[in-house]
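Worked example

This section walks through a single chain of length 542. The input is the sequence exactly as stored; nothing has been trimmed or padded.
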Amino acid sequence: MIGVNFGLPDVFHADEPIIVNHALAFGAGDLNPHFFKIPPLVSYVLFFVYGIYFLIGSLVGYFKSVDDFLNLFLRDSTSFYLLGRIIFGIMLGTGTVYVLYRLVRTFFSTAHGLLSAFFLAVSFLHVRDSHYIYADIPLLFLLVFSFFPIFKVLEHGERKDYLWFGVLFGAAVATKYNAVFLSFPFLLAHSIRKRSIKLIFTSIELYLALVLSVCIFFMLNPFSLIDLRFFISELLAQSQSEGFLGFFHHFKYSLSGGMGISLFYLSLAGILWSVFLRDSKRLVMLSFVVVYSVVLAVWSQPYDRYALPLLPFLCLFASDALIKMSEKIKILQKWPFVFAVAFAIPSMAKIAVSDCLFLQKDVRTEAREWIEQHIPSNSKVALDIPFYVPKLKPSLNQLIERKNEIMSTAHDKAQQIRFNLLISEAEKNSKARYKLFFLNQEGSQNNFIFSKPSIPYNLQSLKEAGIEYVVISQVNRNLNSQFNSNLKTEGTLLKKFSPYKDEKIEWSLDDLPLTGGPFLWKDLINRRAGGQIIKIYKLKNV
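Given that input, the structure is written out below as tokens.
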């Protein structure tokens, strides 16, 4: 719960608005998300939550109409994001700790269950991402839950176990597509149970589980079938953003940073011991770890959250290693929990620092407040990477232009309602607004309506457009270096906002945490606030 309201009412997690805005858009009557790069299930559930929120608010007289409900979101979205963060982050994140405990206690031992749950509860990546609304934490919950029927298939192989897996597998893939790799431990458990090649491929239970999982997926994501051509095109487009990273990036960056280097190495020791032990349950779980690790290496993105699905299972292997060590070392038998805490200290320290940063005002909020006080309303402002710069309000004329742009689209009803309300709010509210431009690489396209119009990183283009102010983020010194250099000579630096304690730091100490809060220890410990370094320039001769 600590810092769960970070950034609000501004929104500084790059992916949270995808979930929230789609959930609200379903209220316009069109349940087709028109977006399949991630499945819409979390947005559907959030839409249901918002429906309950509206009904309760109406009963107590807080909302007189649907417009009151939507106006609250546009005026101050805090309650909407808090609801999502509490349900999909805090509750499911905490629930995953408990489900892991029950799973490991049931199929291994109580000691394994307690240690595994403790290690997951203090894994930095899991705790940090449980502050967010996104599909990652719901996916983790379903991944762990799915191993109940997988282990039961391994032990008993009853039809109900296969059917139960089919339900959970379909729901997990409908939450996030990378849950498809659950099929590997399931098929391994099925193969070990059946033993004979003939029995493996002629088992009716296997095909029942497959058919049921497909049915569940399409029930929870019906427009992937109804709008099949667009669904496939979205999957193909998303696949273009994945690529080869090498076999050590996520080990060195995401996992050692996400659970602490000492706990990560303890889990590797547990994996090695499991290989020699040749226990079928451990091998089944290890199959998921191995397959998913290979996928991360050859076809993924570099961001830390991509490794999140591995954490619960690595926590089990870490508990394995600690218990095995306690059998050999007498002092560990007397103080096992003390040593468990010792292994988890690096991760726990990161959690403490991260939570403190969540409680501070973000530099993007500081920058927005300064701009609204010092830069005249309706000025032309060019913004750098939207994730890292302040959230400024577009001018009334720009809102009208954007509304006209989306009027002809096939799925414009929700956007039209939104723009009508935004325009109405802009007409009534005298708050500072700006003619916004979004810096973009020449030739690249941006399809997001709120990231238009785009303009290249070229000072001459900015001057021709009459842009007076430029807001840039200091994330990667190698990105647009010529533009940044020219800006120093042809612009006047008005203000610098730094999240770092040392004002001499000019560039981000970690340029990878695109979507959420800081990740690396060296970045966390040097900070006073969230966000990236922001500089505000006034162009000369404009």
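What to look for: The chain has 25 helices and six strands.
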